[in-house]
Design goal:
Layout (H helix, E strand, L loop, with lengths): L1 E6 L2 E6 L3 E4 L8 E6 L5 E7 L5 H15 L4 E11 L2 E14 L2 E12 L2 E10 H29 L1
Antiparallel strand pairs: 1-2, 3-4, 4-5, 5-9, 6-7, 7-8, 8-9
C-alpha cells in the first residue's frame, strides 16, 4: 500500500509503512522531506524553487559527509530518470563508508525539472541499499511523474 506526500507543488507516493518527517523549509527550499524504511534506510528530498548548479550542490553534500565520516569513498554518479515527458539526467556521487561497524552506501542525485532543483539522497547499509534500490527508484519516478500535475496546480 502507498501513501502520498503533497505540499508546495511537490508530490510523490511512498510505502505507507515508511515513516515520513517533513522538515520546515529553510530559506531557499520549497520542500524538505525524509522517509525512513522499517530497516532504517533513509530517502531524503530537498527541492529548491530555482535552478542551481547540480555539481556545486552535490559537492556541498559530499563535503558535509566527509566531515562526518572519516573513511568515506566517493565516486561520481550519473543516472537517468525515465519520466513521462522524457529522460531526466541526474548527477551526484555514490558513497561508501563505515557506520556503526557496517559498510554503508549513500547516493546523492541532483537534477533539474520545471525550473526547480531537486536533490535526492539515499542512505542505508550497503546490502540493504541494493535491495531497496527499486523502491528508491520508484520514489523518484513518482516524484517526477507527480511534478507535472502539481506544478500546473501551483501556477
Amino acid at each position: 500500500m502507498t501513501a502520498q506526500f503533497q505540499r508546495n507543488g511537490v508530490s510523490f507516493l511512498y510505502p505507507e509503512n515508511w515513516r515520513i518527517e517533513e522538515h520546515p523549509p529553510s530559506e531557499g527550499l520549497l520542500a524538505a522531506v525524509t522517509l525512513e524504511a522499517p530497516s532504517g534506510a533513509i530517502w531524503t528530498l530537498n527541492v529548491e524553487p530555482r535552478l542551481r548548479d547540480c555539481d556545486e550542490l552535490a559537492d556541498e553534500i559530499l563535503d558535509t559527509m566527509r566531515g562526518e565520516y572519516d573513511e568515506l569513498e566517493a565516486e561520481a554518479y550519473q543516472g537517468e530518470i525515465l519520466a513521462p515527458a522524457g529522460a531526466i539526467e541526474t548527477r551526484g556521487y555514490e558513497l561508501h563508508f563505515y557506520y556503526v561497524e557496517m559498510v554503508a552506501k549513500a547516493i546523492i542525485q541532483c537534477f533539474h525539472h520545471n525550473g526547480r532543483t531537486y536533490m535526492v539522497m539515499t542512505q542505508a547499509e550497503a546490502r540493504d541499499h541494493d535491495e531497496l534500490d527499486p523502491i528508491f527508484s520508484a520514489l523518484v519516478v513518482s516524484l517526477v511523474s507527480g511534478m507535472g500535475n502539481m506544478a500546473a496546480e501551483a501556477d
